[in-house]
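We examine the record.

___
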Amino acid sequence: MLRTVLAVVFLLAGPVVSADDFSYQQPPKPVMDALNAPPTPVVSVSPQGDYAVFMQPMRYPPIAEVAQPMLRLAGIRIDTTTNGMHLARNYVSFSMKRLSDGADIKLTVPSPAKLSTPIWSPNGSQFVFTNTSAHGIELWVGLSATGQTHRIDGVTINGVLTGNGVLAGGGAPPEPAQWMGDNHTLLVRLVPAGRGGVPADTVIPKGPHVQESLGNSGPAPTFEDLLSTPHDEELFDYYATAQLAYLDTAAGKLTLLGKPGIFTGVQPSPDNKHLLVGHLHRPYSYQLPSGAFPQEVEVWDRGGAVEYKVASLPLAEHIPLAGVRTGPRFVEWLPEKVATLTWVEALDGGNPKETVKNRDKILALASPFREEPREIFKTKERFRGLQPLAAGKALVEDFERVKRVVRTFEIDLDKPETEARLLFSRNERDAYHDPGTPVIKTTPDGRRTVLQSGEEIYLSGLGASPAGDKPFVDRFNLATGTSVRLFQSSSGFESIVAVLDDGGTRLLTRRESPTDPPNYFIRAGADLKALTHFSNPMPQTAGIKKQLVTYKRADGVPLSFTLYLPATYKSGTRLPAVLWAYPYEFSDTDTAGQVTGHEADSFPELNYHQLVVLQGYALLDNAAMPIVGDADTVNNTYVEQLQMDAQAAIDMAVEMGVVDRDRIGVFGHSYGAFMTANLLAHTKLFHAAVAESGAYNRTLTPFGFQAERRTFWEAPDVYTKMSPFWYADKIKTPVLLIHGEADDNTGTFPIQSERLYAAIRGNGGTVRLVMLPSEAHGYRGKESMEHVLFEELTWFDKYLK
C-alpha cells in the first residue's frame, strides 16, 4: 500500500516514471555476477595457535531477510522472532584445519546455517558457536581435535545486547557465551524461562507522552531508534532481559546464576572466584540510547551474591560535547593479578574544555574489596586504554583532542610512585609512525595477556608508507625503546592474521597480489607454506589495472588516489570517470598527505562502488579529501579545502591522459555523500553525481556532527555554509539521491535526502530520489545492492557517456 501511494505522489508531482521504477532492477550481468561473488572466507584461530576455522560469509542476504519484522528500541534493532539482533552478522558454512600440518578436519554444522564466530575455550580444545534458526538462537559445542559438534538441548540464547567489551567504557556488551578458566564451564546468557507473552500495547492511549527538562543542559547527537513510549520501555525490558547461567559442557547441565537482568557485561576474575557484572535499570531515556541508561557495576561471588559495588552510574544525560561520563569507566580485571579491579575516573568533570592539570586517574582495588581504591596513575590528557604487562607493569595511552596527539607510557601498577616512561608519541592520523599494537595471547587458564619475554613485547601493525600499507611484526624492547623487525610484507599484500608462537616468528598470514587471489599461509621466516587454495572469486575483474597516484593540491598538501582502469583500456584513450571519496580531518599537512590502504598491491576483489570499472569507467578511488586545521575550528574552511582537494584530483587525472575533463562524476556514501552534495553546491567540476545516505542540512544535527564539536548556536555560520541544502538553488549538476528507508545512523535521517530532493526539484535542478525499503545506513539486501548499481550505472551512463 505504501509503495502504491508513493508511486501516485511521484506520478502527480513530478516527471512521468514507468512502473519499473517501483520494482527491483539488476545491473549488467558481469557487474551482477561480480557483486554476488562469494567473498574470501575469514578465519578464527584457536588461542594456542593449533587450529583454525574458516568461515564463509554471505555477502548480501536476500531482501526477504532484511525486511523481517524488527523492533527499534533504545538505539538497537531487535529480531523479535529469534530474540537476537536484527541482521546480526553470520556465516553460512565452516571448514577447519589443523595448523601444525595443514590437515583438514571434517567439521559438522547445522543446516541451514546462520553461524556466529567460534568462541574458543582458553586451551583451544573446544569451541562454541551459535546458530540462528527460525525460532531462536541455538548453542553448539565442538571438539577441536575431531570437528564433532552437537547442539546443547534446552539452551536458547538471548542475543540482544551482545558483543565483547569493557564495562562502563562505551564498548560492546558481553558475548552470548564465554568460557571460564576451567575449560569446560560456560557462562551463558539465556532467554528467561517462563517470561510470559510479549507485552501488549493498549489500543486506546492512557494519556499524552510527556518529556521535560528542568534547566540542565543535555546536548546529544541526533540518535536513531530511541524509546518513545512507556510501551517501548516494556518491550525493551522484555527482549533485553537475560538469565545468566553456568553450563557444564561435558554433562550438559545448566545452573542458573542470580536474577534476570539487562546485562552490559559479565567478566570472570582471573582466579574464577568472582564475577564483574554490569546491568541497566530504569529510569530510561527517550533522548539517549541504552549505553547511557543508569547502570550498576558490581562484583559478585560465584553464586551471584554482591560482594562489592563498584559504581551506581546515573543516566548519562549531561555529558558535554566530546566529553565523558563521570564515575568509573573502563572497569576490568587485571589479568596478571588473582582478582584485582582497575578503572578510570574523570578529574575534569568529563568536560574537555576545562583547564586542569590531569584529565583522568586510574584506580585499582584487590580482593576482598574492603580497602579504599588506590590511585595508580594520572593521565594528563584523556585516557584511551590500559594494557597490563608482566611484572606489575602496564602500558597506558592518553589522547589530546585538539592536536590529536596519542601518547603511550609504561607505568608500574605496584609502585605508583615510579615515574612513568614515555614510549611513543604521535599524531593520531600519523599512520607512517604508528608503532603497532601489542600482540595478545590467551593462556590455557583464560587470561588475555601481552606476548612478552622479559623486557621484550611484540607489536603488529599495518605499516603505512608512501608506497601503501606493508603489515609488520616487531619485537620491541621496553627498556631501550628499540625495535627489531621480524616480518614485513614486501611482495603484494600480506597481512598478519595471528602470531602462532611465543617467539613471534611463526605467523598465519593472508596473502594476495594484483594477480593472485587472497589465500592463507603459514609463514616461518622466509619459509611460506600455503594453507588454502581459494580460486579467483571474481573472474570478471581479470585484467583490471590499478595504480597508486600521488599529487599535490594548490596549497602544497600532498594527496593520492588509486586509479582503476578497465581491462580493455588502451593507452592514450580518455575515459569517462567517477571519483569516490570520504573526507577526514587532520591537524597538520604532514599527516594529511600520508598514503593509507593497499589497493594497488591487492587482488581486485572489488567492492560494490568499484564495479563501475566493469562498465568502462576510470575510477579515482579513495581520493584523499583532507580537511586540515585545529580540531575546534577545522570546519571553518571545509568548503574551500574540499574544492582544492577535488580540483587537484581532477587535474591530475586529466594530466595523466586517462580522463576526459568533461565527463567526470562524483559519488560517496554517508559523509562522502555530504561531501558530494557540497561539491555540487559550490563547484562546477562534475557532470553527474550520486549521493548515498547523506545528511545535507546541518541545522537538523545541531549538537555536532562528524568531527564538529561546536553546537549550531556556537557556530551558526559554519553549520549554514556546510549545509548543501541551503544552496540547493545552485545545484544544477544531475544528482541521484539514494537512501535507506530504515537508516539507523546518527544524523542521517531519511528525511535528509527527501528534503534535499524537494529543494533541488523546486529550484529546477535535475534530481532523482531512490528510497530503499527496509535498508539501514549500510545497505545489506541482495536485491537492494543490485538495484543500487543499476541506478548508479544508468545515471552515470546517461550523463557521462
Notes: Residues 355 and 383 are 16 Å apart (CA to CA). Residues 1-16 have pLDDT under 50 and may be disordered. The first strand starts at residue 42 and ends at 45.
